[in-house]
Design brief:
Layout (H helix, E strand, L loop, with lengths): L1 E7 L10 H17 L3 E8 L4 E7 L3 H7 L8 E7 L3
Antiparallel strand pairs: 1-3, 1-4, 2-3
Helix pairs in contact: 1-2
């Protein structure tokens, strides 16, 4: 199943200039995805709008939930199942 994830945050929760948090948001998500059987097909961001976008593939929503568990306090996540047409 494919999922489109939109992550938004504001300046007060931005991780860009906090190296230890950026490591969790960057490599941490990649490692968690692998551990939970989630494939990251694409990862994009618009730093000026404090927004990130992911295209993910997973067998269950629970796998997506587990992948983002360590970064939930970093902002808001909208997770939408999608299909390729």
């Amino acid at each position: 199943m494919l999922f489109h994830v939109t992550h938004t945050h504001d300046y007060s929760t931005c991780t860009t200039h906090i190296p230890e948090k950026m490591k969790v948001f960057g490599n941490g998500i990649t490692e968690a995805a692998k551990a939970n059987g989630v494939t990251i097909h694409g990862r994009y961001s618009n730093r000026m709008e404090h927004t990130a976008f992911f295209i993910l593939e997973a067998d269950t929503f629970e796998a997506i939930d587990a992948t983002f568990d360590a970064v939930l306090e970093f902002g808001h996540f909208e997770i939408t199942p999608v299909i390729k047409r």
